[in-house]
Amino acid sequence: GLPALGGIYYYQYGGSYSGFSGADGERAQQLDQRFYLLKLPIARAAMAVGGCLLVFPCILILLGVLQVPWRFPAWLLVECALDIAIAVGTVPALYYFFHSMVGVYNSSVCKEREQLYQSKGYQGFSCSLHGAEVAVGLLGCMATVAYLLSAVLAVRGYRAVCQQKQKPVQL
């Protein structure tokens, strides 16, 4: 059940379903488990994509520290193309995320779970998008803008490196 998940649920409900007993308690645990399993693939996919997108800027920082763009300016054009691809790919990924979440919240498991908890006076189990999911959307939009800005900066960096390399060396 929810208290077994730990965190805020354990403290909010005192480690047990205070309003549930017998068949209702077992049903609540079953519905919680089924709801969790419905959301699990979406959460795993979101974490995997987010993790990969966090690795990319780390690689770019490392390449900048190693001065790869100075030695191989064409890398900045490759970076620009990758930034644009990521920014464009983020839009359908966000659509898939929200489409999947709405499907989970429209499921019979969620509706039954919501009714069961509301019958005992519990709040916060509604079948609608929650703050964390809305934050995913906002952060995804911000990431899209950031990657597009990074693409522009990569092109500007390419131009600057090419101009610097054409200047004669002054001692």
From TrEMBL:
Membrane topology listed for this record: Multi-pass membrane protein
Residue intervals passing through the bilayer: 42-63, 75-98, 134-155
Transmembrane helix found in the keyword field: yes
Coiled coil: none
Residues annotated as domain MARVEL: 1-159
Keywords: Membrane, Transmembrane, Transmembrane helix
Name of the protein described by the UniProt record: MARVEL domain-containing protein 3
Source organism of this protein record: Manacus vitellinus
